[in-house]
Amino acid sequence: MSQIINVEHLNYRYPQQDTDALTLTDVSFSVAAGEWVAIVGHNGSGKSTLAKNLNGLLAPVSGQITIDGQVLSEDTVWDIRRKIGMVFQNPDNQFVGATVADDVAFSLENQGIPRETMLKRVDEALAQVDMSAFKTREPARLSGGQKQRVALAGMIAARPKILILDEATSMLDPEGRAEVLATIRQMKADSDLTVLSITHDIDEAASANRVLVVNDGQLVEEGTPAEIFEHGPALIKMGLDMPYPERLKAALKRQGVTVPTTYLTEKGMADWLWQLISNK
Amino acid sequence: MMNKLIFGRYIPGDSVIHRMDPRAKLLLSFYFIGIIFIANNWATYVLLFAFTLLAIKLSGVKWSFFINGVKPLIWLILFTVILQVLFSASGGTVYFKWGIITISQLGLVNGVYIFCRFVLIIFMSTLLTLTTPPLELSDAIEYILMPLKVVHFPVYEVALMLSIALRFVPTLMDETEKIMNAQRARGVDFGEGNIFQQMRAIVPLLIPLFVSSFNRAEDLATAMEARGYQGGEGRSKYRILKWQARDTWATLAFAVLTVALVGLRLYV
Amino acid sequence: MAIDFKQVGFTYQPGTPFATQALTDINVTIPDGSYTALIGHTGSGKSTLLQHLNALLKPTTGTVTIGDRVITPETSNKDLKALRQHVGIVFQFPESQLFEETVAKDIAFGPQNFGASEADALKTAADMLALVGLDAELLDRSPFDLSGGQMRRVAIAGVLAMAPQVLVLDEPTAGLDPQGRLEMMEMFAKLRHERELTVVLVTHQMDDVANYADHVIVMDQGKIAKTGTPQEIFQDPQWLAEHHLGLPKTTAFAQQLMAKGIQFDQLPLTEDQLAQALAHQLGGATQ
């Protein structure tokens, strides 16, 4: 697999900042095409700043970013933005179109794609996120989860190679969150999309192939979800919720029960408990 | 959730009026306001009312919406009508005279005509806004402004601004209500006390609204940039307006109406 | 202070073509001193009900009794202010209500509206800031220079400054990271204890309901669907699913265990309850 995102020694400071402190310090990582990587970290750790550097919404102090073989610069930024679709946190503040269909078409209009192609792609994208029935609706009459699915349809229509989710589910109710996550998993299954999701949501992080932990503007750890989840209670400090099996393990320890130290999925945990009780 | 104004609200539907090209609807509505001034006798007003009521009937929108559209303006209308009756041209039988105030037969008739004009204009513009989504109106305005491109007027940008503004109206209304509730819960009385107290009560509403609007604007600009927006040039259009046979027929109907009005004005 | 709803109905824009009935025949009590969770699918009428708790909305039918004040459709808007001092509402994303030049002034805003002198209100502000766990040095800062989590705490301090007897929290942890959520919920539990508050929590987080509430009101389509203790409400997972509501994580996990054949006398709601039940079945410990 080739590397679609390559970040080398990235340093970033907000221009309006009055100190010399960096928001991102010497961040290097790469993502293979087709991979799903979760970036976690508590609020203010620099995760979103990192995401906004990747498509040139923010310009770094130093370092180099290569997206799909192109080095990010003023000349390539618009090409690179075409390759990256980005869904943000607030469902209301990224809805540009006056209706669902208009919003889905927005990126395509920007690329000057002929109308015939647009009509087809918008319909297909809406069908894929199961929002066809809402095509002519106005955003004010949609739920948060529906608005985020429309945003995803906009990405599907524009066909980027990379999808960045910047806390895209954090403002949704549990039902909306589940809907959006299911849609993302479906999109991932339908294409060789690379997904980079910035999140606090344990279910979203568990869907990833790899988790990067950011703290104070630095990349402090990386590993598979299972490796990261082994941290147990320390996960809260990393900006993640504890996976349920870890919470239960902690509670069992308080009751004096010896528990395995390796990470168990919910199913694994249930199996282990069943074995323990039935063998007793 | 907060306003009772009917004027300016779109009622979804599928009538022939709903399906007309918004450019046709916008231009013909303006044209209608112009030709109302041709009317000068009973026959012409009867014709205009018949035409307007037919258009309303075709739209399938309930009559009550139109009556409700007149209600908020009724005092303004009555005030104008009374001024007209009391102070304008005297002619015919004079019923009452005191100083500069005269109530004459002609004055009364004029008053009734002015009332009719108001009602006709309100009915027709209510019909326009009830049957045309704001977005289509903004498309129509964009099209009508297009000749200004010659003088480098940023028509595309203005049109996008207009459509984003329309899209955020409900969002900001909700926001306003939310902030008002939060401040009322902290003991603010909106709309009570003298003018200074009322102005002071506005500050805790306006500042949060500005702050949140700026934040929204910044988020929106970032999202637009991330989605490749580089300005109006070189963009293709998803939504296009189509002039159809029904729009030509509507235009012809207005032409016939004009001829009939002129005829009735001259010969009745 | 108890709040009592009797046959309450509420219609938005009554008498217009846009009239919509948001509440129908609500009969429910929020007991004095309780920690009541108000749950329901988005659009179930929770936020409309919430606005009746301090008479931001008046019922279109029925009566709401707040402490000893009775609110009917005919109640005049004039002297509702005193009532609002007793029932403080922290709305969703309360940081959006901040507007003053300094944190101190913003927290003092509420008390001053209820007649406190500026000096007294500023003193209260300093106390409240400590109460919500923020440093006194923030008092003279602009609220707009703070982090999102700090802004939210300042807004909550602004509501607490009115010394309400009932504290209503509308999704107070929305948008916070897990650590922020945990700290916030612990803070409310502590405040409730110290200040003897009646708490009403509107939430989608069933784990918070299980961990903190002692009374639950479930709403659906503008009606009260069920009331009871968390234990009672979460006994019927299928009924909850039909009303678009989830289970606490523990209860959901316990169901997986039950499917395997592990028995429970009572469905556990928190991980400690589950751990206790399991440890009991394992005969204390397995060392």
Structure characterization notes:
The complex is a heterotrimer of chains A (280), B (268) and C (287). Chain A is of the alpha/beta class. Chain A folds into two domains: 3-242, P-loop containing nucleotide triphosphate hydrolases (Rossmann fold, 3-Layer(aba) Sandwich), CATH 3.40.50.300; 243-280, no CATH class. In chain A, 38% of the residues lie in helices and 21% in strands. Chain A is built from ten helices and ten strands. Chain A has helices spanning 47-54, 77-83, 100-110, 115-128, 144-158, 174-190, 202-206, 225-229, 244-254, 266-278, and strands spanning 3-12, 24-32, 36-40, 62-67, 70-71, 84-87, 162-166, 194-198, 210-215, 218-223. In chain A, helix 4 crosses helix 5 (144-158) and helix 5 (144-158) packs parallel to helix 6. Chain A is globular, with a radius of gyration of 20 Å. Chain B is mostly helical and 268 residues long. Chain B folds into two domains: 22-132 and 242-267, no CATH class; 145-226, no CATH class. Chain B contains nine helices and two strands. Chain B has helices at residues 22-35, 42-59, 63-70, 74-87, 105-131, 134-145, 155-185, 195-226, 245-267, and strands at residues 94-98, 101-104. In chain B, helix 7 (155-185) packs across helix 8. The model of chain B is unreliable at 1-7 (pLDDT under 50). Chain C is of the alpha/beta class and 287 residues long. The model of chain C has no long low-confidence stretch (mean pLDDT 93). Chain C has helices spanning 46-52, 81-86, 103-113, 118-131, 148-160, 178-195, 206-212, 230-233, 237-242, 249-260, 271-281, and strands spanning 3-12, 20-30, 35-40, 61-66, 69-71, 87-90, 166-170, 198-202, 215-220, 223-228. Chain C has two domains: 3-247, 3-Layer(aba) Sandwich (Rossmann fold), CATH 3.40.50; 248-287, no CATH class. The radius of gyration of chain C is 21 Å and the shape is globular. In chain C, helix 3 packs parallel to helix 5 (148-160) and helix 4 crosses helix 5. Chain C contains eleven helices and ten strands. The interface between A and C is large, with 40 and 39 residues.
